Amino acid sequence: MNKCGTQAPVWLSLKSESLPAPGEIKRLTGCATWQVFGGTRDCCLFRIPIAVRNCGAFFVYLLQPTPGCMGYCAEDKSTSLALQPVIAPELVQGRVHLKCSYSPAAPEVPAQFRVLWSRLSSPGKREQIHQETTLQSFSYVEMDGANLRLGDTVFCTVTAFRRGTPEQQSLPEDSKGFYAGIKFLPESLEIAEDGKEHVLTVLSTVPIACPGQDDSCKMTLQLSTEDLGRQVPGPPDIALSACQVDLLPEPCSGSSCAAATVTVTAVMDFAQDGNRVSSIRAHPDAPRDLLWRDYTPRDVKVTVRDLPTGNCYSFTDPHIITFDGWRYDSHKIGTFLLCRSESRAFEVHVRQWDCGGHRSATACNCGVAAREGGDTVVLDTCNGHFQDSRPQLTIKSTETSPQVKILKSYGGRKITVSQELAPTTFKEDWNGVGSCKVAASTRQSLKNCKLRSQKTFFEASISSIKFRLDALPQATGRERIVFPSGAFVRADLSEWGMGVTVRTPGRDFNSTRGLCGLFDGTAHNDLNNVPEEDFIEEWRIPPGKSLFDKTPAPSERKQRKSFCRCQKGSTKPVPMVDTKNAFQTPSPELSGCHDDHVDHSFAIPYLDVTSEFVTHTVTGPTLRKDAEPLPKTFGQRYFSKSVQKRRSPEVPLKPLPHVSMNSNSSINSTKLTGDLRKAKRQDKYFKYSSFHPLHGPAQRHSESFAYFFPEDYFEGDRMKFPLSWPTPNGLTVTKAQEICHQILANSTIGLACKGLLAKHLDEAIDICLLDLQLKDDVAWVSALIALLENECERRVLGSRKGEFPVGNQPSASWEEILAALRCPALCSGRGRCTELGCWCHGGHGSYDCSSAKSE
């Protein structure tokens, strides 16, 4: 009393009133009396109107101005009893209740407690739902679904006072807010397209009531994902390990009364779509408890950081374009490391042989070998003679079941190694009905496959891949090797060898080594700032050490999870563009949730032919009956079991068209004027090198070699001559530019994809000029069409959500670009372009309808 120099204490009179509830304002009366000259017995000599607001953790008082020169001095007289109220859920007679517990006052001080229950009605504002005065150190309130519902954030505020003197109260103490319902932990995620898995916990903060106490007591939650932030809804950028979880009752501990986990990963979509936000939502599935009906839990936001996709090219003699876009030439022969990931088991090796340059020694890719995890794929034309060797494809696996897939496009000219894809059903209407299901075993599934076309009925009961490809619409051609990570290796086959394309996902960003560079977003450091010759030599692989000759030891490989998009409102994926069936991708009904976290869409149609090549690694040499190893000799071909049986996949290789020059310098892109030189590569090799058979592997070491590749033992310098215009055949730089522009820029793919290709089209023309100057033969130019096709497809897949990088706006309509990719040369005007490739008119065949049936 009389603190800080005052003479009249002021106190709140609560005889007929109580303090306001949290968030509430009340007008109360303050009493005051003078305490000088002996004072007075009237404790409320004069009254002061006071407005009091309860702000939860504190009160705000609005006092009237004092008369004259008087003023107020305030001092906190209330005491805190450290009640520390806490809310916990409990089941009471099968009904969900919330219990507010608090520490009682000192036992020698008899006290009562006023408990006020409230819930958050809007940010920063509470709504009172229940109040009681009790002698107990706890208070209950039932979650009845009306006054208190799931999804509410609940508080209890406790005030203690002496019995008989309710006006003398402690300061009110609030509990922490208790969220009643389903929660995700963490409440938000930030992940990247790097293949990493993230565990998300789904828990219930209230008990799961079990009417009837049967054994099936659980709460099933359906999980769904949704893409946020796009004007046009699209597939979410995340995938889940399951689309539903079961919450089983368990004793409440902390904030959890039932919990389950689900794994979240980013979808590697190989699209340049920036950082995206998706949501995960849980919905109770047909709950029996009325409390759970019409309840929608809070969703969790997942931000996915976009990572770049790496594409590396090695074409013609060969010209290498690294993941980051640096271009250089590799004229060396031998076996080299094209790409290796430092963060996982993934690597690609190439073999380069002499391919007969007219003016100087040149090198071309004759084989590629790729490995991911326990799967190794070898596509090889090196075990033969230049222009006289058919491709041999072998799959070797240390896994129980290989996960790699072989896809053919354009009649076998494109081979892509891919991950395990689900069965795909091709349906197309050609003046009737056609349906053909291509499942895991292509040979068996195509038996009795029926196609009706142009009133002619075909029944395919076939046994070789060659006839199968002819029986189907021309949806096949080049071949690609696709791995579970989304990485693929594509080979574009030609008479001289192959162009190689490697795609690696964002998880390999900043962790690659080899001829394809560092993949760190910076092009100028790809060669490690050393001369090209030294850089190439750094990645040479010694004889017998490459994937062509040996299978790596099994690596530790964790069990693969299946992932689902769990897309909200539909079991089918939303089309990525407005064009119907724009990309060939596994059917969701058939593929289920196999590998939905990797987008395996392709714009170039394909046919899965993996079953023709699958074999398992032979752990030792073949034994005779007397258990002695069979001898091996140099030059003997060793293939996997399936390849030994087939000798080579039936890939009809059509001769490349030659472009000739006549006296008036006109360009003819269809007339054949001659063949590429068919010199035996072994003879030519000895002519240009100092190789001697004694330099080869000893007989006793030949066990580790699939076959003898003499380029691995080359010693000395290969012939190089200064290049200049005109060439010995009279080709001038002006004429060469005209040829390159006509064949590349004016091609179907060049015209349709000009806007998307941008500088890459100019780069292809530069490569074309170098090839013409080096080889003095226009027959090599057409091989660069495949480079444009692959780069155009990469751009299309990267922009398929309708967002194009600055400077890469399409010059043709989306439908025209897709048609150019599906149907080479637009079927040469002799067929109809379908979603699965060219459907040739009568009398014509091949993947581009360019051949007459008689051919």
From TrEMBL:
It comes from Lonchura striata (white-rumped munia). Residues 660-670 have a biased composition (Polar residues). It holds the Pfam family VWD. Coiled coil: none annotated. This is von Willebrand factor D and EGF domain-containing protein. One of its GO terms (cellular component) is extracellular region. Residues 310-547 form the VWFD domain. The keyword Disulfide bond applies.
